[in-house]
Specification:
The protein is built from twelve helices and twelve strands. It has 389 residues and is of the alpha/beta class.
Length: 389
């Protein structure tokens, strides 16, 4: 969940518009400005005045993203393992399940390739993250991971790492995957935020048949998260039957204390009009569950809740047990940990970054198979073969 140097990306250019659709977009925009409106029932069926073209496109995208049989499409060649390396993983906060999940993946992959890993927790504050990064540089490791925070927050520390010839790799550190020369990253490992935001909104459009009253949960203190939530809002606005009821800005470190009271307030304000939610991180729904339960809401919904990342085990458990979360767009967290280790191996060998980007996926109770993470097949075997392990 993290940063974006371009906070005003263009909306999806692929929407086909007719005069009717254009009018629908204007209506949706006006609804967003107003801040609330009537949120029809998820069971009311397609609206005659809704968004048939957008709905059809959303349904097709969701079907593809729910597929669990996709084969490994990542790298199959690269340098053999470089031995004797040590990696320091600087975490934004280990209370963020995505950050913690990737750290575990890095540790697993490092053990396979024969490296050592140390995790330092920035504890979710600028001062803590800067201190953690300073400690990482002082340890003189072979490489440093920016685990879920904007590297511009630690520009001085990144400059020190660069001067010491220590490659730095990000996870959700900037808005785009791949190398980031401006922030000093050899590469950044993430799915494309545009794809995650779009498919999250598309799931709501598709499941509600184009009619929903939606609450968005985000953390505007993190540029990456703010960008993601803005992209979600834009995609939702493509369907005139979807109403944005509220935009809840709750910093992730405060989510456990603030989310329950905010949810109670939302229920009081909107009642049954609120039938869908989307959050930039699954953890909001863990914190929302007690308030929803206390209000007598069914665990299976409404509201029907989707997390636009990261797909930690607790999110899968809520989905599998129908406990106040219906879907997630999970990052393949363990796979991304292996991906990070492979990128370091390329850096140590003097090779360029691989350029690999994992495709988006949607997990529901219907396709999870009871699993507690999205762990696609094939990557461990592929990386072991590349590294000679």
């Amino acid at each position: 969940m993290y940063p974006n140097p371009n906070p005003n990306p263009n909306p999806n250019p692929n929407h086909k518009t007719t005069l009717t659709a254009a009018a629908a977009l204007l209506t949706a925009a006006a609804t967003l400005v107003a801040g609330c409106g009537r949120g029809p029932s998820a069971d009311s069926g397609p609206s005659q005045a809704g968004c048939p073209a957008t709905l059809a496109k959303a349904e097709a995208a969701v079907r593809q993203a729910e597929n669990t049989d996709a084969s490994w499409n990542g790298p199959t060649s690269g340098p053999a393992a470089v031995s004797g390396k040590t990696i320091v993983y600087v975490a934004q906060t280990m209370t963020n399940p995505g950050v913690a999940g990737v750290a575990k993946g890095v540790e697993e992959a490092a053990k396979t390739i024969g490296w050592k890993v140390r995790v330092i927790d920035g504890e979710g504050t600028p001062a803590g993250i800067q201190a953690a990064f300073s400690q990482a540089v002082t340890l003189k490791p072979s490489g440093i991971v920016v685990g879920g925070f904007d590297p511009r927050l630690t520009s001085q520390q990144v400059a020190r790492a660069k001067a010491a010839h220590i490659p730095v790799i990000g996870w959700h550190a900037v808005d785009s995957p791949g190398p980031s020369e401006s922030t000093g990253l050899f590469t950044n490992v993430t799915t494309k935020v545009e794809d995650v935001a779009r498919i999250s909104a598309d799931w709501i459009i598709a499941r509600s048949k184009g009619e929903a009253g939606v609450v968005v949960f985000t953390d505007d203190s993190i540029p990456f998260a703010r960008n993601k939530s803005e992209l979600i809002r834009r995609e939702l606005a493509a369907c005139s039957g979807v109403t944005l009821l509220a935009y809840e800005n709750i910093p992730i470190p405060d989510a456990s204390s603030r989310t329950p009271q905010e949810v109670s307030s939302l229920l009081s304000r909107f009642g049954s009009k609120w039938n869908y939610s989307v959050a930039i991180n699954d953890l909001y729904f863990a914190d929302a569950a007690p308030a929803l339960r206390a209000a007598g809401k069914p665990g299976s919904g409404p509201p029907f809740n989707i997390g636009a990342g990261d797909g930690d085990p607790s999110a899968f458990q809520r989905i599998n047990n129908e406990q106040f979360q219906a879907a997630t767009v999970p990052e393949p967290l363990t796979q991304q940990g292996w991906h990070i280790v492979d990128e370091f191996n390329r850096a140590f060998a003097g090779r360029p970054a691989s350029g690999y980007v994992a495709p988006v996926h949607i997990t529901t109770a219907d396709n999870s198979g009871g699993a507690t993470s999205w762990d696609p097949s094939g990557y461990r075997e592929a990386y072991r073969k590349i590294w000679g392990r």
